[in-house]
Amino acid sequence: MQSVIRVELPEQSYDIAIASGSLDQLGEQCSGLSLGKKVLVVSNPVVFKHYGGIAIASLKSAGFDVYTCILPAGERYKTLNSIQKIYDVALEHRLERSSTMVALGGGVIGDMTGFAAATWLRGINFVQVPTTLLAMVDASVGGKTGVNHPQGKNLIGAFYQPRLVLIDPEILKTLPVREFRAGMAEVIKYGVIWDAGLFSQMEESKRLDQMRYLNEGLLTEILNKSCQAKADVVSKDEKEAGLRAILNYGHTIGHAVESLTGYRIVNHGEAVGIGMVAAGEIAVHLQLWDQESTQRQDALIKKAGLPTRLPAGLDLDAIADVLQTDKKVKAGKVRFILPTQIGVVTITDEVPADVIRQVLHQMQAA
């Protein structure tokens, strides 16, 4: 059974289509969107080995001419060099303005494919087929695309919306456990910032650290409610003029941790988990929310098998320096998204540096 969530935007609204076994309907889903004849599928070797054949066969059966660009897996390859490789294939096969790029992969592939689509011939069609939990609930929805700069995460990019997001939960069966846990970080985020009901549902589940411990109903709720939360926020604020910044809950310190560990020690979801713990503690210090709430949040993060401490050996001064290069810095002040109750957060740039340092010191690995 398919559920469809509409992302309503002034210029280009689109659907998030969620259904088990829907990957082999990709061509059919795309054929009604006037996407042109040429399609470039961008993926990584691991995902392509599992799902490339199904996606390509489906697109070809719908009458598309299909080409491929396979990029190395991993956040450290999310660079302008990889974008150049996509451009080279697009040029080789003469992709036109009516052509389409399909991202078949996790958040890294989605971000890069979207940015390449946004900038090739000043913008061509783009379809998201996320293959990780993190990409399904977060990265594939909302139109944020881009790559990393050596000095910081996602500093180069564009807002560019897909024409369609196709989510097939069956794909998660081949997802490594660590990647599943990374996705749960973003799901917990939605519970804290937007949906107290989702938060409570996760509290009732005995385990959240592996997909096999989630009943099918909870997984369906996680996908639907997370995508709905993201769609609601993006519909109200497409380009992060205000409200959309709440989607960065846990990401301020999280991004700094990722950058300082070279995108090799912790993955994005693990960094967000650490960042949410830090944000919760900062909120307690500033008396924005209570100790019980932060304990409930941290218990969920632990239940999902995510870290709650900083990686060993991380320099607190270096974290402070990286925070100043964050995209959310305004007039030299770091903006934090901080919780006030489960399901509600506030945006503030009035977090004293000594409070940040004190919380980070508390979170240093023993």
TrEMBL record:
Entry's localization field: Cytoplasm
Cofactor dependency: NAD(+); Co(2+); Zn(2+)
Binding-site residues, NAD(+): 107-111, 131-132, 144, 153
Cofactor binding annotation: Binds 1 divalent metal cation per subunit. Can use either Co(2+) or Zn(2+).
Transmembrane helix in keyword set: no
GO molecular function: 3-dehydroquinate synthase activity; metal ion binding; nucleotide binding
GO process terms (BP): amino acid biosynthetic process; aromatic amino acid family biosynthetic process; chorismate biosynthetic process
Binding site for Zn(2+): 186, 251, 268
EC category: lyase
GO cellular component: cytoplasm
Key words of the record: Amino-acid biosynthesis, Aromatic amino acid biosynthesis, Cobalt, Cytoplasm, Lyase, Metal-binding, NAD, Nucleotide-binding, Zinc
3-dehydroquinate synthase N-terminal domain ranges (all copies): 69-181
Highest taxon, organism lineage: Bacteria
3-dehydroquinate synthase C-terminal domain ranges (all copies): 183-329
InterPro entries from the UniProt entry: Dehydroquinate_synthase, DHQ_synth_AroB, DHQ_synth_fam, DHQS/DOIS_N, DHQS_C
Pathway(s) the chain acts in: Metabolic intermediate biosynthesis; chorismate biosynthesis; chorismate from D-erythrose 4-phosphate and phosphoenolpyruvate: step 2/7
Catalytic activity: 7-phospho-2-dehydro-3-deoxy-D-arabino-heptonate = 3-dehydroquinate + phosphate
Entry's EC annotation: 4.2.3.4
Family: Belongs to the sugar phosphate cyclases superfamily. Dehydroquinate synthase family.
Function recorded in the entry: Catalyzes the conversion of 3-deoxy-D-arabino-heptulosonate 7-phosphate (DAHP) to dehydroquinate (DHQ).
Name of the protein this chain belongs to: 3-dehydroquinate synthase
The organism's taxonomic lineage, starting at the top: Bacteria, Bacillati, Cyanobacteriota, Cyanophyceae, Gomontiellales
Gene: aroB
